[in-house]
Amino acid sequence: MKYPFQQFSVIFIFLLFLLSNTAHSQNRRTSGNLILEDIPEIPEDIKSRLQQYQNTRSANFVDWMPNNKGILLSTRFANTSQLHTIAYPGGARSQITFFNEPVSNGTFCPSKDHNGFLFSKDIGGNEFRQIYWYDMATRKSEMISDGASVNLGMLWSNKGDQFAFTSSRRNKKDFDIYISNMETPKEAALKINKGNGYWIATDWSPDDKRLLVFQYLSSTKSNSYILELKSNKLTQINDEDTDAVFLADSWDSKGENIYGTTNQGGEFRTLFKYNVKSKEIEYITKDIPWDVEEFVTNRSGTKGAFTVNENGYNQLYLIDLRSNTYKKAKNLPIGQIYSIHFHPTEDKLGMAINTSQTPGDIYSLDISSMKIERWTTSEVGGLDTSTFPKPVLIHYETFDELEGKKRMIPAFVYKPSKVNDPMPVMISIHGGPEGQHTPNFSSFYAFLANEMGIAVIAPNVRGSSGYGKNYLKLDNGFKREDSVKDIGKLLEWIENQPQFDNERIAVFGGSYGGYMVLSSMYHFNDKLKCGIDVVGISNFVTFLENTEAYRRDLRRAEYGDERDPEMRKFLMSISPTNHVDKIKRPLFVIQGANDPRVPASESEQMVKSIRNNNGMVWYMLAKDEGHGFRKKANRDRMTEAVALFLKENLLND
Fold it and tell me: Which of 143, 291, 362, 644 has the lowest CB atom count within 10 Å?
């Protein structure tokens, strides 16, 4: 059996982990695919209290099935999410994929000559996703990519005889655009190999002779182009010298205009219309002071739909592309609206909707009548979700000013429904760093609030998306620790709120949020009781040197280039591994062995440093996970351990 280089790297790192940590651990054992160090056995009362909360599930819209046969969706009924079909609203779900690894995407071929769909999956969370063809007639699937590279962004032509996709197969570092023909789908023609950023196809022109493509360079800069498929000529749409996100999404019905989103003209991403002949840009939604996120059009290119992130909540809008007039869709649940898809032949829009009290479920909207139909009702473990904490948006002052006034940081607060004493608090910090906490269904937060009496505060510190492009840039480069200062100011805000117990505060976060946990642990040691770091960065220099090659330049654009001596010195100065002597509180580190983003070595070196400094640290390593836990068995054990860690280290007197 041949292994790609990635798998050799993972095995090597894993062996190093075993050799370097065994001597330091006081108590090391295995549970399934988990290696547990210094983690006590989980008491039965915690397992039993968590059981219902661990048995909630959600459903995500994947695609409409051809010939009005229903929808394709992703949901979990065993250990991993798999693909299912439903014939009509409220109908029974029929599972059609049965892999050990999660499957969450798929796109049906629009041609009647090919009855099936494309999907992708990886192995053990390594993110080296491969493309598969699923034949609906035989109910069998076959890998059609190379088996060694990262593949994403499958996009069918209008005729359905070929598809474009993005792959790192050329050198395992750069992301190029390829096109495969359905007659020989395993063969792929290289169309773009510029080697700078991620190149992704977004739409085929109505005659299938041109492709819209965009080049992702960073969270604050992307370019869009028209690719002539016959000549491979690229024509840039946006101004190269303007530092902005410019994402061309869709052609109109005649191939004369292009629609997309950009913050080129202001703070927020606005829906635009670009005339191919005149090269003029019209900003359509400039009166909406929030980011336009998802944007889709119907197959004829006459109607569109888009979502707007309004202070963390999604609103759905419908637009007539012949007049560019739009309106907000009414009577939809307030929460997160995503995975929007127009029906291929009918005037319908499919979507997933998630709220703080309902898990993600699938709905359809009849655009003519505005009738809403619910396709799925996901299980909630028999819980009364009306008792789940409802997030309250607050703003607190931070250390700097904006236009002569103290800058305000938004945060969502989840409070227990029954409160007798001042509440202990867990600060939950999102990753990214250009992510955003948005209120959604969380059985984990509900368990903390309802069963443990812990309030959760989720801040969107500077560098978060959703609040304008300047807010997004506030933590870049040498400003990295300014976002940590925002956590310090949140701690001060908590101290001034009688409802919270300022002597019982924990920090929790994953990925970049894991770095924020570690940094907070040494900056604010005296104000914290404990911290939980999930797949977090512990040293920016070693992280940048060891993250997968295809991610390195993009992360340098965000964090700084460690090859520059001045930047390297700064990154070392703020890296938590160089400040372990200041971390005196208990720490829980959680990691996936196959993580290509934040390698396991980042957690391993942090755990080792803490132990060498006689600190207290629990460590959980999943041998079959990557950047976060996607398998239910692993997630359940992790949640149980987190609950025990908080009970022993946050709630104890």
Answer: 143
Spatial CB neighbours of 72, under 8 Å, sequence gap ≥ 6: 62, 63, 64, 65, 83, 84, 85, 106, 108, 117
User: Domain 28-54+383-649 carries which CATH code?
Assistant: 3.40.50.1820
Q: Which residues pair with 36 in a beta bridge?
A: 29, 620
Give pLDDT tens digits for 435-449.
Answer: 999 999 999 999 999
Q: What is the pLDDT of residue 653?
A: 63
For the beta sheet containing 184-192, the strands, ordered from the edge strand earlier in sequence to the opposite edge, are 151-156, 162-167, 176-181, 184-192
Q: Read off the pLDDT of residues 183-196 as tens digits, 9 standing for 90 and up.
A: 999 999 999 988 88
Domain ranges of the chain: 28-54+383-649
The two tokens of residue 476 are 């870049």
Average of pLDDT values for 514-537?
97
Give the helix ranges, DSSP H, for 379-511.
Answer: 443-452, 469-472, 482-495
Residue range 354-400, pLDDT digits in tens: 999 999 999 999 999 999 999 999 999 999 999 999 999 999 999 99
The rounded distance, in Å, linking the Cα atoms of 621 and 637 is 11
516 contacts 429 by C-beta, under 8 angstroms: yes
Say which residues have a Cβ less than 8 Å from residue 537's Cβ, sequence separation at least 6: 511, 512, 514, 515, 518, 543, 598, 602
Question: How far is it between the farthest Cα atoms of the chain?
Answer: 71
Cα separation, 57 vs 75, in Å, equals 7
pLDDT (tens digit, 9 = 90+) per residue, 221-244?
999 999 999 999 999 999 888 889
Measure Cα distances from 580 to 24, 138, 542, 632 in Å: 16, 57, 16, 33
Task: Transcribe 55-98 into DSSP letters.
Answer: TB--EEEEEEPGGG--EEEEEESSSSEEEEEESSTTPPPEE---
Does the model's pTM come out above 0.85? yes
Identify whether 89 is preceded by a cis peptide bond (ω within 30 of 0). no
Mean pLDDT over the full length of the chain: 93
272: which 2 tokens?
Answer: 């635009």
